[in-house]
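Reading is simple: each integer encodes one residue's backbone shape. An example follows:

___
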Amino acid sequence: MEKNKDWNLMEEADWHFRKLVRRFVKERDKISVEGVSLPGLLILKTIERNGEQRLGDLAEVLDFTSGAVTALCDKLESAGFAVRQRSRTDRRSIVLDITIQGREMLLRNQEVGTCMIDVLFGTFSQEELIQQIHFFKRVHESLEGFSERIHQQYRNAAEGASGKGGSAAPRRNRDFISY
């Protein structure tokens, strides 16, 4: 690790990033339209756009857990907005498809996504949005293999500590750590 990094700034950035993610998920999950949560609307919109979907594929595309997708699909089905059925192309697979009522509900509420994006990003200038997109992409790229890199660093640190009597882990500013 580089010694000239400003750990206080990086830890503050980490703290704000984690706070932002938690707050976004908490607020997003409060949004409900006609009894359907925003993640449920995303599922319906994905099916409307791409056709029937296997639940595992929905989880992958929308970055939800399989348990969350199953629970959301149960709610969509009980509300009459979606239906599980055998795939038309692979009879062994069960897929979720949108019903006529689901399509009508999406049509009635088509501005929800636009409103959400405007509330989150509408006050930023074009230059600020370009910068945000750039930084979001960089953070996203940093997450590729994130857990494995962390595990590897601490395996290396533990191996070094067992032979040298110390840890290679960086010193932290506890003001921003809340793991």
Observations:
- The beta strands are 32-33, 36-37, 53-54, 82-86, 94-98.
- The chain has a mean pLDDT of 88.
